[in-house]
């Protein structure tokens, strides 16, 4: 437990120092109204807040995911609340639930559970309207929870994930957008006091319809899990219903050998 506490405090302390340093170092160079470059945000691995966020921005997301494996089907629902307390800094709280349905009585089906509680921060340290480019650093603290039936017999929090990340986005002309989201995930299992290190490297390409906020595109979600490379392609489309409301639809196709098969994801986005 002492090792876990020291590790957690160290990561959190580093994140606080990083954000403070970035804020002070740019205090004199950021104008009263910060620059902000419009970028398309991926729908599956979405960002904590818009890159170059402006103070006062708020957003509520509701998502639902369906995925099919060789032995069971999985249904996920999530809710996210994002806001920007100051220019360029985004904060987010997310909670998710997972429900499972086995294909047969003998299948090894996970139990229903509140999947995780996720708290995230993201700071855009470089914003250039001239180059239509934004870069950001962020950090996510994720608490993986046990299943509903084990609340009285095991640890409520099974795993803590420490996830620093880097984001770089560029707009090409008025309609084409590219984005990279990457970083390690330190997964600390509380029962065994053991930490795994996985990596994620996500790239996305989007085309935004002229004079609108509708877009089509694709994400390539790549992970290195236990030294095994996994990649899923996720074509997607976003429909802007009105100034505040948008609907996103995503499909998933594994490109490497995986237990997971076809998946689909839906996101409702509401700007407050």
Structure description:
It contains 1 helix and 12 strands; from the N terminus they run αββββββββββββ. The chain has one domain: monomeric porin ompg (Porin). It has 272 residues and is mainly beta. Strands 1-2-3-4-5-6-7-8-9-10-11-12 form a 12-stranded antiparallel barrel.
Write the layout of secondary structure elements.
Layout: H1 2-25, E1 58-69, E2 72-86, E3 89-102, E4 113-128, E5 133-145, E6 157-172, E7 176-189, E8 194-208, E9 215-225, E10 228-240, E11 245-254, E12 260-271
Antiparallel strand pairs: 1-2, 1-12, 2-3, 3-4, 4-5, 5-6, 6-7, 7-8, 8-9, 9-10, 10-11, 11-12
Short description:
With 272 residues, this protein is mostly beta strands. Helix content is 9%, strand content 59%.
Structural class: mainly beta
CATH class: Mainly Beta
CATH fold topology: Porin
Q: How many extended strands?
A: 12
Report the sheet-strand fraction: over 45%
Sheet bearing the most strands, described? 12 strands, antiparallel, barrel
Assigned CATH architecture = Beta Barrel
How large, in whole angstroms, is the Cα Rg? 19 Å
**Share of helix among residues?**
under 10%
Number of alpha- plus pi-helical segments: 1
The stretches of 5 or more residues where confidence is low (pLDDT under 50) are 1-32
What is the general shape?
globular
The helix/strand series, from N terminus to C terminus, equals HEEEEEEEEEEEE
What's the structural domain tally? 1
Keywords:
mainly beta, 12 strands, 272 residues, twelve-stranded antiparallel beta barrel, 1 helix, disordered N terminus, Porin, globular
